[in-house]
Specification:
about 400 residues, Glucose Permease (Domain IIA), about 55% helix, 13 strands, ten-stranded antiparallel beta sheet, Helix Hairpins, three-stranded antiparallel beta sheet
Amino acid sequence: MRARLLIAAILAATAWAPQSVHNASAIFCYSGDPPAVYQACVAYNQGIGQQVNNQNQLINIQSKINNTINQINAIDAMIASLQSQIAAQKALIAQTQAAIDELSRKIRFGEASLIRQNAHVTVREQLLNQRLRYVDSHGGVNYVRLVLTANSINQLLNRMVGAQQVASSDRRLLVGLEEEHSQIAQANTDLDGERSQVSALLKQQQEAEADLEKNLATEAAALAFEKQLVAQLAAQYDAVQAERAAIDAQVAERAREYAAAAVKAGGGNGVFEWPEPNCGPGCMSQRFGCSSFYLEVYEPSCPYPHKIHTGIDIAGPYGTPIVAADTGVAYLYPGSVGYGNLLVIIHGNGYSTYYGHLAGYAPGLGTGQVVPRGTTVAFEGSTGWSTGPHVHFEIRVNGVYKDPCIWLGC
């Protein structure tokens, strides 16, 4: 119990420390607590681990992550962590409250029992006082007188037995009172210990509730911020898809213009080579097909969020040369939102290829220029909606995106 009181004093002292050094939300778990409380406390501390202050984490996400999708992902991860912490905090609070209620019940019963015991002792003490006053006024037992005044041996024996019984009764009364006083002292000590434990549990409860309130406020702020981000992302999605539609419309128009020139130059036969010779099929980081990336093209046949990756991603070193997959007429779109620096090559007979996220174009390359198959046309980069150096490569047939691996055999 002394150790418990010492720990409580230490916790009380640390409560005066500046809040700037109180970022960690871990609390001390005392092994002397009721088992359910101790286990809930340990689970709570394991749940939060070595986390930094959640509010600072939210501020960091808001200020240091520029990509909206990355912000949403970070917020989702943070909210999941917060919900785990909140569940552990609520479990700890519930267990602590149950322990406080049980201790309070024991204290009430202990106090009631102590009142009854004190009343019993008071009655016994009154009996002792009466006996002492009687002895004081009449003196102790005079055994010589008992012998001399006895009329018979039987009377003498009866007087002797009676005197011994009185003395034995006095001794039992004294011993009993001593034991009861000892029991009362122990009961008071036990009650003081239980009251101290309740005080320590209440302090722990207050700390957990303060942490819970802070986490609930942070979770509400994070959810509100995520709602703003989702609205921004919806606007960005609309902008990207509008830009994609505009590019596709221009490509369709240019395809009609350049089709004859592309076929005359030798393109449009449906044969394509790997667009990044220095980084072969082993560098492919994402295939054609359903995607979880919010800004991809809508495809109802894909699972939520119903998006499709319209090409393949080839992730090589930054600046790796990109070649024309087939002969055709180049069309440049520098600085687009989604694709970043984009190159479209129209090959004729309905074929076109797209090369996105480029670091830049080959020197001297311009819109309307015929580029032979295998000619370096650009360099791998990470422009637009990109998470690292790669080229996004598409094959379109009459404006419809197809899996490039159908032609490339990847």
